[in-house]
Amino acid sequence: MAAQEDLKAIQLLFNKLGESWNRGDGGAYGECFMEDADYVTFAGQHLKGSKQIAEVHQWLFDKMLKGSTMVSSAASSIEPRFISPDVAIVHAIGEVRLAQPSQDHNERESINTNVVVKQNGEWKITAFHNCRIQDIPGGKR
User: Fold this and answer.
1) What distance in Å separates the CA atoms of residue 130 and residue 25, rounded to the nearest whole number?
2) Exposed e or buried b for every residue in 65-76, given b needs 16+ CB within 10 A?
3) What distance in Å separates the CA atoms of residue 24 and residue 121, rounded to the nearest whole number?
4) Residue whose C-alpha is closest to residue 28's, from 61, 59, 54
5) Residue 4 DSSP SS3
6) Burial (Cβ within 10 Å: 0-12, 13-18, ≥19) of residue 64
7) Whole-model pTM?
């Protein structure tokens, strides 16, 4: 059974991720990831390492995602599946809302799969894969 401290620390990690996005702070966003992390966007781009994740996100925050906000289910509650005491899988559902409502599409809800690792007492994301939520045949999600 996971220690309450680990559950709280993972929750805080995902809170920081969302808060960094909402401030448009690519550096803080990148700090949520391991130095050698893998990040796959919903469009299939593969970013390598916290530095590239930070740089690409800062570029996005300064351009097409300027003023956007991330609304995430992870901000309220997450349920990690612990693989070991220091490794867990976290699924989170969220949506990026653009600053200009007229440019925002209603079908932006995404689900992401995260592998989080505890190293030197700190939880960080080592793998992130994001994709748009689609209905399962038969109309169920």
Assistant:
1) 19
2) beebbbebebbe
3) 27
4) 54
5) helix
6) exposed
7) 0.90
> Please, are residues 61 and 25 in contact by the beta-carbon 8 Å criterion?
yes
Contacts with 54 (C-beta within 8 Å, 6 or more apart), sequence order:
26, 27, 29, 30, 31
Residues making up the chain, counted from first to last = 141
pLDDT in tens, 40-58: 998 899 999 999 999 999 9
Task: Give residue-wise pLDDT tens across range 100-110.
Answer: 877 766 667 88
Q: Are 71 and 57 in contact (CB under 8 A)?
A: no
* Whether the Cβ atoms of residue 30 and residue 37 lie closer than 8 Å to each other: no
CA distance 28 to 10: 16
Return the DSSP state at 72. E
Phi-psi label, residue 53: left if phi above 0, alpha if psi -120 to 50, beta otherwise: alpha
Q: Which two tokens stand for residue 36?
A: 């050698």
